[in-house]
Amino acid sequence: MIRFACDYDEGACPEIMARLAATNLEQNPGYGEDPHSDHARALIRAAIGRPDAYVQFLVGGTQTNQTVIAAALRPFQGVLAASTGHINVHETGAIEATGHKVLALPDKEGKVRADAVDEYVKGHWADPTHEHMVQPKMVYISHPTEGGLLYSLKELEALRRVCDEHSLYLYLDGARLGYGLVSPETNVTIRDIARLTDAFYIGGTKVGALFGEAAVLLHPDLQKDFRYMMKRQGGMLAKGRLLGVQFETLFTDGLYTRIAKNAVDLAMVLRDALKAKGVPFLYESPTNQQFPILPDGVVEKLSDRYAFEGWGRVDDTHTATRICMSWATPKANVDTLLRDLLPLL
Amino acid sequence: MIRFACDYDEGACPEIMARLAATNLEQNPGYGEDPHSDHARALIRAAIGRPDAYVQFLVGGTQTNQTVIAAALRPFQGVLAASTGHINVHETGAIEATGHKVLALPDKEGKVRADAVDEYVKGHWADPTHEHMVQPKMVYISHPTEGGLLYSLKELEALRRVCDEHSLYLYLDGARLGYGLVSPETNVTIRDIARLTDAFYIGGTKVGALFGEAAVLLHPDLQKDFRYMMKRQGGMLAKGRLLGVQFETLFTDGLYTRIAKNAVDLAMVLRDALKAKGVPFLYESPTNQQFPILPDGVVEKLSDRYAFEGWGRVDDTHTATRICMSWATPKANVDTLLRDLLPLL
Amino acid sequence: MIRFACDYDEGACPEIMARLAATNLEQNPGYGEDPHSDHARALIRAAIGRPDAYVQFLVGGTQTNQTVIAAALRPFQGVLAASTGHINVHETGAIEATGHKVLALPDKEGKVRADAVDEYVKGHWADPTHEHMVQPKMVYISHPTEGGLLYSLKELEALRRVCDEHSLYLYLDGARLGYGLVSPETNVTIRDIARLTDAFYIGGTKVGALFGEAAVLLHPDLQKDFRYMMKRQGGMLAKGRLLGVQFETLFTDGLYTRIAKNAVDLAMVLRDALKAKGVPFLYESPTNQQFPILPDGVVEKLSDRYAFEGWGRVDDTHTATRICMSWATPKANVDTLLRDLLPLL
Amino acid sequence: MIRFACDYDEGACPEIMARLAATNLEQNPGYGEDPHSDHARALIRAAIGRPDAYVQFLVGGTQTNQTVIAAALRPFQGVLAASTGHINVHETGAIEATGHKVLALPDKEGKVRADAVDEYVKGHWADPTHEHMVQPKMVYISHPTEGGLLYSLKELEALRRVCDEHSLYLYLDGARLGYGLVSPETNVTIRDIARLTDAFYIGGTKVGALFGEAAVLLHPDLQKDFRYMMKRQGGMLAKGRLLGVQFETLFTDGLYTRIAKNAVDLAMVLRDALKAKGVPFLYESPTNQQFPILPDGVVEKLSDRYAFEGWGRVDDTHTATRICMSWATPKANVDTLLRDLLPLL
Question: How far apart are CA C109 and CA C283, in angstroms?
């Protein structure tokens, strides 16, 4: 069985495994106050061009979203997100668990548009009963989105403007950030993200780490006492050094984007091969996840040798599927898949 | 200025004011453990035909919704509601404040349909990632709805069936219940509601009381230790006798429905008069709230003498308005309004 | 049966009942945006000498505490209180329900001492693991305390200083404030309280109103968007006019303190009579609640004609009891009680 | 610098590092639904003698406590704990973050005594105002405690009895469980714990794992839908296989207790050597943490070569210190410490 079901099927990239082994018997203080974590913070600040950034490491994405959002909002404030956003659908109410409503904006493509934010927030304040409604205070976006799509620089700048106009925080979930940064179709750099958002996180779990996300807090309001929030949310790792070691490895010699590139390159190979056969796609993803719409029989025939995730039926005879490449995917796996799949189309 | 802006512009019906005055210097134990509250409970149990019902009185609707819903759900469970439902829009996140997500079901008319519930819940359990999503466990409906509409007996029975099939609680928000019970177009009695739901509340605030809602808990799971929940949510009134006195008055000699009938009769007068002039309505409400769509100029011309609430623009030249009648509305006010309004149409 | 069990056994003082009746059919906007509420706010601002105070009305004490405290604190912050404080013992976890820990300070008399606050807060920040502990950010005091005691002006000033030194909010629960203000043994005025605290509430429920508390927010941080908090906590009364009418009545012609004085005068009569007989007291309360320590047989003998609350056994043969006077207690009731009680001592 | 500051200064034991490396490129499903996690569960069920146990793996202790406790309690219920208990002091309000109060029981030694539980719970239900107080529903104990102490079998059985009598859950925090199980002074086995508690966790972070705790849920009420709770609390690790691999390694060939024994043996060496010199101890710990009371000068003199944690001043010239041994401590480190320390006493 070859798995394309997600981008965290394997452990960590070999460089990280080696560094964890090499540092294993070092004695370090706990909770992220060790030299590896400090070094990783410095490397990240340099990479993003923001010496004022406050960086903390958490174990997973839901935990990071929950902690950042709850740190930013007063109790009656909510966070705007695409209705398909991870925080709205796939976190078992982790945001609501902290007392906050996710204010879902419908969108066909799963992106948050600046004009939809503008309309929503203006509508809120214009409503004479606005005190009876959750106050919008933050915009949550994923880059790439759940569907693998990317914001353009222009779109991000427009979001920044609308956030400034309405005093909203802009928060970017970068669970798959690496795969977005190396897409052949992006014009957004990590420095743009660090310039335009109030907070974002650099995903490790899905991009080569064993686990771990680097929360980057840019707005001073979000920095203050953030470690208390981490502890309260159960998100402060005792052996914080493990996160430090992983991120210092990922941010040394461009490892983070180098391993991400493998995944995106292979995804493009798959995309091009399927497009050449006329296969339609649910989203036009330029990143490591591809969503081809396949005839039902085809999916079935492959299911004993390959694992994908179904992504919803499209019509009576077709299903969208998600095929994920990761830092760990060997080219041979994609070749094999194409060899088995193409003849069925 | 004559107000038709809502059904709580006035104080309480004279019978209640008189009883509060008459009992004012009685000494009673606090927190709803007084003879008036017990008497009111007995009257309600008799009226709804459920001797096993557990009845507690709270001050307001948001508080009641929050307390009942949080008492019923485990932390990762959510409540299905129409996207226009009061708990989803107009309670400043009071449900999320207790850690629970409102799972919004889109619907044109603001009603929750049994088949939409069925589809949602089946979809949840069929999804292999269902543990990553909020578990649906309760259905919330309002009767009348925010738009003044009513469920038919058949619709309520279908909701009961789907809730039974999927082990969901059915909870009915009766903020305006009285106005629903006396509608000329309903076939649902309070006994039907007590037979078909797991919990509901009988609204006092909008139907003749100074304030107060009677939470009626039918499912044994919801009854246990409910008073702890009330206290925790800040919803246990020290002088509980005030709620007891009001509800024993409302449930003596049919006062509750008698005063509600005044409001609905006047609403029908208004509706018929406007329909005769060809005025369209946003909802076909058979209850005390009417939502005529009026030309903009008309609304403006009346605005110095009458208060309504705008209910959203319909097109470039028309606005839906909400005109509320209450137990307290004098027929003369409606006559005056029609005299001023009809010539403008 | 004559009840001395609490100070909310009766309804409201006659002046309030009369005003509620007189204004009953007025039409008013809801949610505290009516002229009566505005007038009451102006009267309170004048009475406390703080034109910058932000005043909102809530229904009960637990709700008020919960709303003010949750409005003030970030998620990882807690509130210091006496271990016997109402929020620590008698609110069924209403503060924890909003996610905050009550940091209990032990004290024999149930008062919070400035030096205990100082020691606690210094200890917090000096501890290298302080991020693993709830951050103290507010001091909660009751005046009078649960045991009827009062802070002296000097004690309040010391609390203010320690709060300033450590950037803590000082919040005063005035559920029985009226009874404190008129005590023959106090040197603290409502203006002192308004000068020295960041927030306090003026209790209506226990001092002559049907229900209602006036939250007075002095620190600008606590004022902002407070009405959103009220709604979220289920604490925004639909017919806010009821609270407005009651507080404008209480703050007209000194009614609030005038009716409070009746209770305290009678309490002093009781105290003096029992002291003359050598009865010891649990607390040396100079307010409306008295805590005499009585032989067990005595309490029993009176229990068919009088209701008090037991306040804990003191030794094998004695029990502390709480005897409450209120605005509504007739002198005759105290005379009768003394006539029955004194011969048993 | 040699660190004795805590038992998580190093990474993981070599067996775990080797297994993580060996399985690194395996493809596995996420979220703990992989063969390694299933195998680890089977090994744990066998080791504890409870084939009906439900086992889930989480990353850290605070997260585990928060998730288990919030899964067990209704909103108005609280958890009894020693006032020095980890959940009461060192989790930045993580329990309160889920809406629950920690009901602190004072105790000199930091243990929860069955009779103190009995008295508290009886007192709760006997109080006529019990609905105004948090309802006790769970007992939380640590084994070893924060001070390294152990419950005897008799004490655990007494706690079980009192929990049965009052329908309380008994939950044991086993952050350092391994060090307790191998103490020369214990008569409690892991099978006793699995027989007597409703839930407990087997600590990995402090006993040889990189990170991870195995939550063992024995009472059926706590098992149901626990994975939803994990996800909601941000505690479901994407690459759950990492936890599975670690616990299958720890529970193969007795590794868990074998490495724990190293720590306890060395702690006994230290204890005996200091006792021989007449050094007093804050707690009579028979486990890996030792709390000698040392003259201030001594601590200072060692502080440039050794890291310990101070554990509070005992008098004007003495400080209690915590000296931790772990699975990773070499005997040479203890020898060196004693060689430097003993001459100073």
Answer: 7
On whether any CB of chain D is under 8 Å from the CB of B218, the answer is no
Length of chain C: 345
Which pLDDT tens digit goes with each residue over C92-109? 999 999 999 999 999 888
Model pLDDT for residues A45-98, shown as the tens digit of each residue: 999 999 999 999 999 999 999 999 999 999 999 999 999 999 999 999 999 999
Is the pLDDT score of A326 beyond 90? yes
Gap from A9 CA to chain D (nearest CA, Å)? 5
Closest residue by Cα to residue A246 from A31, A60, A37 = A37
User: Mutate which of C31, C232, C233 to test chain A, going by most A C-beta atoms within 10 A?
Assistant: C232
B75 min Cα distance to partner chain D (Å): 7
User: Which residues are C323's β-sheet partners?
Assistant: C290
* Two structure tokens written together for B176: 């305006």
Residue A213 is predicted with a pLDDT of 98
Give C157 to chain D, closest Cα distance, Å: 30
Q: How far is A258 from chain D (nearest CA, A)?
A: 18
Nearest to C86 by CA among D308, D133, B229: D133
Chain B 324-343, residues with CB within 8 Å of chain C CB atoms: 328
> How many residues are there in chain A?
345
ipTM comes to 0.96
Q: Which candidate in A96, A100, A120 is best for mutational testing of the B interface (most B CBs within 10 A)?
A: A96
Whether A20 sits inside 8 A of D29 (CB atoms) is no
Smallest Cβ–Cβ distance between B96 and the set A92, A99, A131 belongs to A99
Which is nearest to A243 in space by CA: B170, B333, C183, D60? Answer: D60
Rounded-to-integer distance, Cα D175 and Cα D207, Å: 8
Q: Chain A residue with minimal CA distance to B98?
A: A99
The strand pair at C77-82 and C102-105 is best described as parallel
Contacts of D90 in chain C (CB under 8 A): 129, 132-133
Are the Cβ atoms of B74 and D225 closer than 8 angstroms?
yes
What's the burial of C185, exposed, middle or buried (CB within 10 Å: 0-12/13-18/19+)? middle
* CA separation for the pair A258, A262 (Å, rounded): 7
Nearest to C93 among D76, D90, D104 (CB): D76
Does D28 have pLDDT greater than 90? yes
pLDDT at residue B297 in the model: 87
Which segments of chain C does DSSP mark as H helices, in order? 14-22, 35-48, 61-72, 86-89, 114-126, 153-166, 177-181, 190-196, 220-223, 226-232, 241-250, 255-276, 296-302, 331-341
Q: Is the CB of C211 less than 8 angstroms away from the CB of B242?
A: yes
Residues of chain B with pLDDT under 50: none
Residue C315, class by beta-carbon neighbours within 10 Å (0-12 exposed, 13-18 middle, 19+ buried)? Answer: exposed
Q: In what order do the strands lie in the sheet with D135-142?
A: D54-58, D213-217, D199-203, D169-173, D135-142, D77-82, D102-105
Start-to-end Cα distance in chain C: 21
Q: Which contiguous run of DSSP H or E holds residue A17? A: helix A14-22
Give the mutation candidate from D28, D100, D228, D232 for the A interface (greatest A CB count, under 10 A). D232
* H-helix segments, chain D: 14-22, 35-48, 61-72, 86-89, 114-126, 153-166, 177-181, 190-196, 220-223, 226-232, 241-250, 255-276, 296-302, 331-341
